[in-house]
């Protein structure tokens, strides 16, 4: 095969970068509101007695790319706007859900947290329920519809999964690599680990195929990638669910790198285990951060509530593997199990052998793993 000419190779790279930038900047251009004010609700969660919804109100001016004529420079400008866009602080929103009304005020960064207690029972025939949001800003009325997740009566367990280096490769240990993958590559370019989508569909369906088990996701990334994650999940047919922990990175022109924050994952997992106290849990994470230690603590703190812990081995260090094997022994003595592997199919086999999913799903996980293993990250 003749090598590709340098000029053709350069054009291919240019087209690839343009495509990635268009994807990364598209969520900014799609979002709009009166005078650029946007209500962006994130998927919420709750029970028939109480639901929680978080979101952000922000204002973004129109750019030339919205008025026609797209260029790489304008795409880059839109990506930059999404990274450093500022929230609209101290504005009041009115939320309505199942006969209940709640008024909340955004914080200085434009984020809001709302708790609603339904006056009427939410419909029991579906998992997702709509919440109406509205605000008045300088005489302009702005409205949006959010969604909250309430587990169906058919659910047998809850899955909490990390996203970074568990569902998709993000390289969170390398800040620059993570920034590149999050804001330039785009949803289509960020490959899920082989077989993970089929595994998560099988866990969501359960062994009967129609359990609709809740899927809750955790990420260390910023809220500004929410749309990207949403697109990624739909693209790969991964069951969607509330994303419980993203954060405001505080990126500005003067502070171009994310500020550090205390990892609140243990508190979030505890809250979910306590809130859905009628269901056991499956916890999924990776070996690169502190997921094994956090999940091990949960197993000990909530005896009998954790069915299994699955840890994707991404560290590549023998010492780290030894630490996690020791934790696995502790988890087993506590009455649960911890599986450390870099193979999604091995997780699926364990889940099928313990009745968490249908054995018939193993072929789908294996086929997807085989197909996707050949694709570069």
Explain this structure.
By secondary structure, the chain is an alpha/beta fold. The protein has 2 domains: 31-149, Immunoglobulins (Immunoglobulin-like), CATH 2.60.40.10; 158-373, 3-Layer(aba) Sandwich (Rossmann fold), CATH 3.40.50.1000. The chain has 10 helices and 14 strands. The chain has helices spanning 6-30, 72-84, 175-185, 196-205, 226-235, 265-275, 291-301, 318-333, 344-353, 362-373, and strands at residues 37-41, 44-47, 50-59, 92-97, 100-105, 111-116, 128-137, 140-149, 158-162, 215-222, 243-247, 281-286, 306-312, 338-341. The strands form 2 sheets. Strands 1, 2, 3, 4, 5, 6, 7 and 8 form an 8-stranded mixed sheet that branches. A hairpin with a 2-residue loop joins strand 4 and strand 5. Helix 1 (6-30) packs across helix 2 (72-84) and helix 9 runs antiparallel to helix 10. The model is unreliable at 64-69 and 249-262 (pLDDT under 50).
Which SSEs are present, and which pair or pack?
Elements: H1 6-30, E1 37-41, E2 44-47, E3 50-59, H2 72-84, E4 92-97, E5 100-105, E6 111-116, E7 128-137, E8 140-149, E9 158-162, H3 175-185, H4 196-205, E10 215-222, H5 226-235, E11 243-247, H6 265-275, E12 281-286, H7 291-301, E13 306-312, H8 318-333, E14 338-341, H9 344-353, H10 362-373
Parallel strand pairs: 2-8, 9-10, 9-12, 10-11, 12-13, 13-14
Antiparallel strand pairs: 1-3, 2-3, 3-6, 4-5, 4-7, 7-8
Helix pairs in contact: 1-2, 1-3, 4-10, 6-7, 7-8, 9-10
